[in-house]
């Protein structure tokens, strides 16, 4: 379980990136919204979809293997 954040500022393609709380890129994001405490980035993604239409997951921190 980890805290997840979504970058409030969209990237060039209009998508918003999701990060874990311990991502090395997180301190450089000026404006972010806490998505809450999630078991993996997939449920964090669903939470972010309530706010933003286009979402991507960070290639650095959102690589945890999901066991279904
Ligand atoms: Zn990240």
The order of strands across the largest sheet is 3-1-2-4
Low-confidence stretches: none
How many angstroms does the end-to-end distance come to?
Answer: 15 Å
Mean pLDDT: 92
Overall geometry comes to globular
Q: What class, by secondary structure content?
A: mainly beta
Counting DSSP H or I runs of 4 or more residues, the number of helices is: 1
Cα Rg: 11 Å
Query: What string gives the helices and strands in order?
Result: EEEHE
Strand segment tally: 4
Helix content: 10-25%
Strand content: 25-35%
How would you characterize the largest beta sheet?
4 strands, mixed
Number of domains: 1
List bound small molecules.
zinc ion
Q: What is the secondary structure topology, with strand pairs?
A:
Elements: E1 2-7, E2 16-20, E3 32-38, H1 41-48, E4 55-57
Parallel strand pairs: 2-4
Antiparallel strand pairs: 1-2, 1-3
Characterise this structure.
This protein is mostly beta strands and 68 residues long. It has one helix spanning 41-48, and strands at residues 2-7, 16-20, 32-38, 55-57. The chain has one domain. It has one helix and four strands, in the order βββαβ. It has a four-stranded mixed beta sheet, covered by helices on one side. The longest helix has 8 residues, at 41-48. The chain starts with a strand and ends in an 11-residue tail after the last strand. The mean pLDDT is 92. Bound molecules: zinc ion.
Q: Can you tag this structure with a few keywords?
A:
68 residues; 1 helix; binds zinc ion; mainly beta; 4-stranded mixed β-sheet
């Amino acid at each position: 379980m980890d805290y997840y954040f979504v970058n409030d500022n969209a990237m060039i393609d209009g998508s918003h990136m999701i990060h874990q709380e311990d991502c090395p890129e997180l301190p450089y994001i000026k404006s972010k919204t806490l998505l809450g405490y999630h078991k993996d980035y997939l449920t964090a993604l669903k939470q972010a979809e309530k706010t933003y239409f286009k979402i991507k997951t960070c290639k650095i921190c959102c690589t945890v293997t999901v066991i279904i």
